[in-house]
């Protein structure tokens, strides 16, 4: 099962290494990892996506919660949440095809962020499925370069 885990930590050196070490030490591969400061610069939020057995991941979640610099751990598996990824890609834009590419980008609510003589750089944010759908439509034009962030997530509503 896919788990999106959000970890609020004190913004200190080494905390990311301890958390990822704990997860990999239990035999889980991290599918996605994103880290950044929160609204309070004293804290960072780590968002990790892993796949695995629910019971074992519950144990891992509890062990992460015991790390001194960890403030809060949320497994969004049973929560209502909003999740987004960001992707930048450079695609060939052959003569006469640029309009088609721009139309695809517009449909997916992406942005053209750079225009070259022979290529376009596109930015898109959304769910993993949305990014994959647009990518599959742009592949026939030729993807020159691609970079993606890890997933970030936030709970819906207030608690």
Automatic annotation (TrEMBL):
InterPro entries per UniProt: Acetalactate_synth_ssu, Acetolactate_synth/TF_NikR_C, Acetolactate_synth_ssu_C, ACT-like_dom_sf, ACT_dom, AHAS_ACT, AHAS_small-like_ACT
Keyword Amino-acid biosynthesis tagged: yes
CDD domains cross-referenced by the UniProt entry: ACT_AHAS (cd04878)
Known catalytic reactions: 2 pyruvate + H(+) = (2S)-2-acetolactate + CO2
Top enzyme class: transferase
Residue ranges occupied by any ACT domain in the UniProt entry: 4-79
Keywords on record: Amino-acid biosynthesis, Branched-chain amino acid biosynthesis, Transferase
GO biological process: isoleucine biosynthetic process; L-valine biosynthetic process
Keyword Iron appears in the UniProt entry: no
EC number of the protein: 2.2.1.6
GO molecular function, one term: acetolactate synthase activity
A cellular-component GO term for this protein: cytosol
Pathway named in the protein's UniProt entry: Amino-acid biosynthesis; L-isoleucine biosynthesis; L-isoleucine from 2-oxobutanoate: step 1/4; Amino-acid biosynthesis; L-valine biosynthesis; L-valine from pyruvate: step 1/4
Superkingdom of this protein's organism: Bacteria
Any one Pfam family match given in the protein's UniProt record, by short name: ACT_AHAS_ss
SUBUNIT field: Dimer of large and small chains.
NCBIfam families the record matches: acolac_sm, PRK11895.1
UniProt similarity note: Belongs to the acetolactate synthase small subunit family.
Role, per record: Catalyzes the conversion of 2 pyruvate molecules into acetolactate in the first common step of the biosynthetic pathway of the branched-amino acids such as leucine, isoleucine, and valine.
Descriptive protein name: Acetolactate synthase small subunit
Organism: Candidatus Jettenia caeni
